[in-house]
Amino acid sequence: MLAGHEELVITHQSKSPAVPRSPFVTAVGWVFLAFSAMGTFIGVLQNLMVATLFPVEKMNDAARADPEFAKLPIFFQFFMTHIWLWFALALLVSSTTLAASIGLLRRKDWGRRLMVVLLGLGVAWFVGSLGLAWSLFSSAPFHGQPVPPGFSGFLVVMQVFMVVFALGLAVLFVWIIRRLLSERIRAEFSA
Hints:
The protein is mainly α. Helix content is 72%, strand content 0%.
């Protein structure tokens, strides 16, 4: 304190007590930030590559010229003739997840809500992908084809792994969604 001057002390009084930051939200934010940043970087490179290196029309013509192409389920026909769209959608999902992760780490409610929506779409994709895989493997190009010796066991292992992996990720995402929607976590974002 200086002679002849009074010391001015400023105190900040909060109207509500500070809500502690959950390590769960921080961990989810950082994990998704890391994966989505990498996915966004790769997505940009993939989209540049598809736009500059791949002759999309020639690829579409080659797919349509294959007699087995017409026997594929309609979803896979669309996928094969619109490959650029899938790369663009992957980039969109990665960059949106990156934004949601940043919002989650900064404790913005829009980030929490966006992450819940993205995780919900992920659950739908995992469950839907099982149906798509079943429709592909039961379609005409694969149905009734002779299976090389020893391959049928590998095919069963691959299908079991695919089901366990998809359902495991779906359960994990549902658990994360439930935690992000819990009262305690929501309070952290409204503080």
